[in-house]
Predict the structure of Gamma-glutamyl phosphate reductase.
Amino acid sequence: MNALHVAEYTHSLGLQAKTASALMAKAPAAIKNKALKALARLLRENVDALQIDNAKDLERARAAGLAEPMVDRLKLSPKVLETCAEGCEQLAAMPDIIGEILGMKQQPSGIRVGQMRVPIGVFGMIYESRPNVTIEAASLSIKSGNACILRGGSEAIDSNKALAKLVQQALAEAGLPQDAVQLVQTTDREAVGQLIAMPQFVDVIIPRGGKGLIERISRDAKVPVIKHLDGNCHTYVDDPCDIAMAVKVADNAKTNKYSPCNASEGLLVARGAAAEFLPRIGAVYAAKGVEMRGCPESLAILAAVPAAKLVPATEQDWSEEYLAPIISVKIVAGVDEAIAHINHYSSHHTDAILTTNHVHAQRFLREVDSASVMVNASTRFADGFEYGLGAEIGISTDKFHARGPVGIEGLTSLKYVVLGEGEVRG
Ligand SMILES: NC(=O)C1=CN([C@@H]2O[C@H](COP(=O)(O)OP(=O)(O)OC[C@H]3O[C@@H](n4cnc5c(N)ncnc54)[C@H](OP(=O)(O)O)[C@@H]3O)[C@@H](O)[C@H]2O)C=CC1
Ligand SMILES: N[C@@H](CCC(=O)OP(=O)(O)O)C(=O)O
């Protein structure tokens, strides 16, 4: 496709989405739930076929030398597909919030004023090469009565095309417009440029990705944006803290999975806890092959850990999102320095304190300026499903409209509803 064809193609996706969105906005809950249940069934019926399409993506990715954590996120294993199917069923079982009226109150003039929850309309989403996101985004879009245009990562194109076909089949089975969920079928980035510049069709753009994507969106978007960007997340081990718990949580926060945006990339340790904590977490990371990029003081302690991969940290490391078996390690004086470091270097995604001091915990929750702030829990929990939202569009690193994991509510807005009996303003 040349640039002109990409523009025409993206324009047609926009027009179709806009038309479908009007039908989705008034679709009854039972019909939307029928589509979600049909999608769950189709995912289960097509596990083998989906593996074949996914294998094409995996083969290309391996041939291109994609890093193992990135290959891992590309996989559509039967387990991943079952989780997607269960997610659709869970969304179907959740109450429909579209059309609900909140806070209706009579005013001195006699009119009653409340707010009605309505779909946003059409959202365009650009996301990484993780094909299960196609199902999470599609299912949330259906449940929230929106239409969407999905542009997944180019490495996942075959998997995404196969999944999008099933989504459209499910929509058709339920009698909903197939164009309510459309996948951009080309990997040409020109389509991204078009998608973010069609305010006549697209109400909001959700970019889910790293720094290259941020730059493009900031430069070219003509549509409102809810950013879902990089995660330079921290775990701060306080003094005092339960050291055994801190080792378990800091291990999970880094090594449970390396590619997600909610994995911890920085480990801060209070000076008073370092002598006891660092050798223990150092041994765990060493056993898992995690490289530790430390400040001089932390390296002096970690040097005693057999087989530890130690590298002196540079200034750049404090800002780095590795998405790999690497973590930066810094000893800080205490909670004040930890909060200051996080507010300076973190990407305001998710940060955690591990402590037994209530005042320190409260200060961390109030003073750390991130979308999720946690006490005694792994940053890996920053996820819509884990937060009880059923599924997630992603983790918003913006402050407006939606912040943190975004579920159904994040895809809606509230409009004012005014009910009168002929009142006029004096
Ligand atoms: N906050 C959140 O919810 C989430 C954030 N992330 C973040 O995403 C990043 C990891 O994913 P990664 O795949 O490396 O992210 P990228 O930003 O490289 O890619 C994400 C998507 O953006 C597209 N893209 C990237 N740059 C451009 C550009 N200049 N113009 C047009 N499209 C572009 C990619 O397309 P193409 O395939 O063509 O490269 C892909 O579809 C990490 O920073 C991670 O934290 C990941 C998941 C969730
Ligand atoms: N909320 C998700 C994070 C998804 C995420 O960041 O994905 P990716 O960057 O593709 O590895 C989870 O924890 O499963």
